[in-house]
Structure formats: C-alpha cells, structure tokens
Amino acid sequence: MPDTSAAPHARVSGVDITDVHINGVERPGDELQIDWSDGLSSHLYALWLRDHCQMPESRDPDSGQRFLNVTDIPEDCAIASAQVTADGGLDVVFQPEGHRSLFTADWLRAHCYCLNGPYDDRSEAAKRLWAGPGDFPDGLPVVPYADFAADPKARLKALRALRSVGFALLTGVPAEDGMVLRVIDRVGYLRETNYGRLFDVRAVEKPTNLAYTNLGLGAHTDNPYRDPVPGVQMLHCLVNQAGGGESVLVDGFKAAAILRADHPEAFDRLARTPVNFRYADDRADLVSRATMIEVGPRGRVRTVRFNNRSIAPLRLAPAEVRPFYAAYRAFAAILERPDLKLTRRLDPGDLVMFDNTRVLHARTAITQGGARHLQGAYSDLDGLFSTLAVLERRTAP
Ligand SMILES: [Fe+2]
Questions:
Q1: Global pTM?
Q2: How many CA atoms lie less than 13 Å away from 194 in the CB half-sphere?
Q3: What integer best gives the mean pLDDT of the chain?
Q4: Is the separation of the CB atoms in 170 and 351 below 8 Å?
Q5: How many angstroms separate the alpha carbon of residue 5 from the centre of ligand 1?
Q6: Distance 153 CA to ligand 1 centre (A)
Q7: How far is the CA of 189 from the centre of ligand 1 (A)?
Q8: What is the distance in A from the centroid of ligand 1 to the CA of 185?
Q9: From the CA of 211, how far away is ligand 1's center (Å)?
Q10: Ligand 1 centroid distance, CA of 217 (Å)
Q11: Taking 60 as the threshold, does the pLDDT of residue 185 lie above it?
Q12: Span 176-182, mean pLDDT?
C-alpha cells in the first residue's frame, strides 16, 4: 500500500526495528495499546488510527492519498477489536462503523507518536552548526563537478552537506554561460525572479544593486524582500582576474545561537519584530514584513534574514525603536566576527551553493582591476529535500 507520508523503512529515529515485533495489544479507553518485544509501548488514539487507515476504502491505492475527511469519521470512534495477524501486523475493527483496517508492525512502529518525537527537521535542531574553518577538521564539503554530475553518491554528499551545514562547493564546473542552471536541475527547481532565470554579478555603471559594483558586501542573506525568500542560492564563477573580491560564508543559525546565549533579550526582540524589507527598480517593487530571526513552533531557529541594503524605513512602536536597534546592532556585530567567517576565493569553475534561509554570504572589496564575472541563480529548499529523499531511497543499501 503506497504511503506518501514516509518512505518504507525499518529504521526509525536511528534505531533498527527490523527485529522488533508486537507482543500483545490492549484496548484501554479510546486508545489502542501495543506492547512491543523490546519492552516499549505505543498508545494510539482510536481516531488517529482510523484517520491513518491504509486500506483501499480509505486511500487511493496508486497515490496513497486519503479519500476521507476527518469529519467523515464518527466522533465517538472506538476500537471494537484488535488482533495480531499471522504476519505480525494488526487487524483492527473500529466502532460504530464496523470498519476493518490492517496495519503492518513496521508502519505502526515507524509512525507511533509516543516513540517518535514531532518533526523538527527544518530548524537548527536538525543541523550541524559551525563557527568558522575550525569546525571543518576534515575540510570543507567540496565535490568535483564531474562526480556530482555522474555519481549519485557524490551528489548525495554535496546535497547532504547543503542540508546539514548549509553549503557545498563544486569544483570544475565548466565556466560556461548558464551552467548554474544545469546544476540547479540536479538539485531542485529553478526559482525565476525579477532578475531573470539567472543573474550576472559583475561591476556595471549605474547598478540597480550594490552587488553589481566593486564594493565589499557585508554578510547578508539574499532577497529578504521576497515572500518566501529563495531557499537555495548558487554562485558560479566564470571569470576572476580581479584582486580581492573573496567570498565569505557565515552560519546564521550559529550566530543566532550566540546571540541567544549572550543577549537573550536581543534574540527575543529580533524574533518578534517584523522588519520592512524592500527592493524597488523600474520594473519591480518587492516588499516583505518579516523578522530577522524566525523561530518555528518549537521555539528553534528556522530562518535568518539579514540584509542591511534592503531594509526600508522601519515603522515600529515608539518604545520599540531603541531596543530594536540595540538588538540589531548586537546581531550585526556577531555576524561580522572574523572567527565565524569562512573565506575562499572563487576561481573559474567553482560553484558555491548555500541555504539562503540560514547561511549569510559576503564579499570583500574588489581592489585591483581585472574581469570578475559570477553567475547566480535561486532554487528552493523543498526541491532540495525532495531530491535528497529520492536519492536516499535509491541508494539505500
Ligand atoms: Fe548576495
């Protein structure tokens, strides 16, 4: 039976459950109690279990999608009987419907909400935070493009790094126009913006963005004025004959964690004060009102937005202006700490990809003449996670 909520597996929360089986079942109150052979128990609410029925009457066998709305299930849903089947699963009959469901032991164990905590895979809790090069004793996550393109395991290495530490570097990407789009096709889906399918980063006269100058750029995330922001950014170096212009990365989740530890009041203020981000030119006027630090429902950081260039006039309650600036300055100071920075010169063929909801990037000033040309493009995190899930399914032992 297809189940679109999780890939079939026998490994849950890092524990191999291949050998775990159901010892017995009971029906206390409106729950089903499952006693497992490893001594643990599951207590599953009858309505939850009925809602998750895997039978073809409840779900489309091809897509795995539910036919039922929760209101189709009687509110007084209860378990009339439950028996262990010959293959070790459960045969459950619900009342008052008299509806019968079969569940495998693997499915019940993998999805039991008593034995598996709530999902928190998008926040800092699921990431490896880092503070500069010292946190990469085995070197930075670097994958040659030839391997990335040909070998799913090499692609997995790069994309897992992008998920876990927030960035990965490809080397030897042909320094050709548009190659960044070819790389995005192997990671997720292109996010086209008002800058086009891709954008060229090089100094121009009358720039619409300070990125297109020789100025240094402080640590920032791109495009906080979009809602939602692009989740993944790629920068591909085609030409670099200039002096300076080194690329810098900073882990925004680590910086937020430092702010929370050292200045908890500042952290709380940035997490609850919407900022007025804006980008405007002749053809676009993009605005968002979003916090610099965004925490998820479990209180953990899941997005950092920081871009001094695109903060439009702030409209805060008068009493909030001073404490907001104190918090903003405290966070900005952490983000510019030299010890938190990873610095690397991008040479032709280098492509850096990073999680734009977490990792800030910066550029030192371009100090000597000479051509410098990067091409950038955006993608999103859902496409990255989808590609990773499919690759992990296909390369599973
Ligand atoms: Fe940028």
A1: 0.91
A2: 13
A3: 93
A4: yes
A5: 35
A6: 29
A7: 19
A8: 21
A9: 7
A10: 8
A11: yes
A12: 98
196 alpha carbon to ligand 1 midpoint, in Å?
15
For residue 181, give the amino acid letter.
L
Domain 124-394, architecture per CATH: 4-Layer Sandwich (3.60)
DSSP summary character for residue 203 = -
pLDDT category at 397 given cuts 50, 70, 90 is: low
- For residue 30, give both structure tokens: 């409106």
CATH number of 11-111: 3.30.2020.30
| H runs (alpha helix) in the chain | 46-51, 105-111, 145-150, 152-164, 179-185, 252-262, 264-272, 318-335, 381-394
Residue labelled with tokens 């952490």: 334
Question: What would the two tokens of residue 29 be?
Answer: 């109150």
192-236 pLDDT, tens digit per residue, is 999 999 999 987 777 777 777 788 889 999 999 999 999 999 999
Q: How far is CA 144 from the centre of its chain?
A: 23
C-alpha 165 to ligand 1 mean position (Å): 18
Strands (E), 88-240: 90-95, 99-103, 142-144, 167-171, 190-191, 199-201, 217-220, 232-240
Cβ neighbours of 115 (radius 10 Å): 20
In this structure, which amino acid lies at residue 393? Answer: R
Residue 9 has pLDDT above 50, yes or no: no
Query: For residue range 247-297, what is the model confidence (pLDDT) as tens digits?
Result: 999 999 999 999 999 999 999 999 999 999 999 999 999 999 999 999 999
Ordered by start, the domain boundaries in the chain are 11-111, 124-394
User: What token pair was written down for 10?
Assistant: 């026998």
pLDDT band of 171, cuts 50, 70, 90 = very high
- Whether the domain at 11-111 and the domain at 124-394 fall into the same CATH topology: no
Compute the distance from residue 307 Cα to the ligand 1 centre, in Å: 9
* C-alpha count within 13 angstroms, C-beta hemisphere, residue 264: 1
How far is the centre of ligand 1, averaged over its atoms, from the C-alpha of 362 (Å)? 7
Identify residue 7 by its one-letter amino acid code: A
